[in-house]
Amino acid sequence: MSVEHPSDRLVAGYARGDTDLPADELWAVEAHMEQCADCRGRLAGAAADVPAVTALLTAVRDGLEPALDRSTPAPRRRRRPMAWATPVMGPWLAMVIGVSVVAVLLDRTAGWTRGAPPVLLLAPVLPLAGVAAAWSRGLDPAFELTAVTPRAGLSLLLRRTLTVLAVVLPVHLVAGLLTGVALAQWLLPSLALTATALALGSVIGVGRATAALGALWTAAVLAPAAALGRLFLLQPEHLPLWALTLAAAAVVTLARRRAYTTPKSLR
Length: 267
What we know:
The chain has 12 helices and no strands. It is mainly alpha-helical. The protein folds into 2 domains: 8-68; 89-266, no CATH class.
């Protein structure tokens, strides 16, 4: 079985610490380095040509060697659930819950929402905000730490996506019960959009995928509902379409799972 290796340009950029490398390419390179001794040798050679890296390694080595000689084993610490959430996901999920509460209040007070319940309009698309926060290099202060773990990639993204759904879906369930919105009417679109974000993210990146789906939802569902008071794509007869979309997106995500551990330039 042939193995694809990062290009020299990508290895050199990684060694220099280029900040313009896309997050998915960076994670893919690090996942590949864990398995490929040849590429680790290429990385060492590239790093030797970067003065800042060699100076840093020398300073760290000189500072650690005396301390390591007199150090004692540290007590075992409790394991932190970094694979399931990031610190920044807390405020984002709180924002999603706040929007859900506002949607319930609007449904109870605004007359124009009778034909287009806000909970039904917002519940399917709100989890996308949490998914975007779960896979954002700029929003994750522990990105560099989690990127080098063996479970980085699709496995990590799925865990964090499940965390988002575990927090958001119960809130939307309560909101649906309070406003009389049927469970399947918002749950299937919500799961379908989330799965589509993961599938599309393997091609253009999760951040761009969630933004594109959010814009598409605004144009196809929110805008007509606000202007005409009518629901598009959210009627009971559309549920089989959402179920088919969910199944297709899940298949594509699994089929393209290597996209989260292979640099874009190699695919």
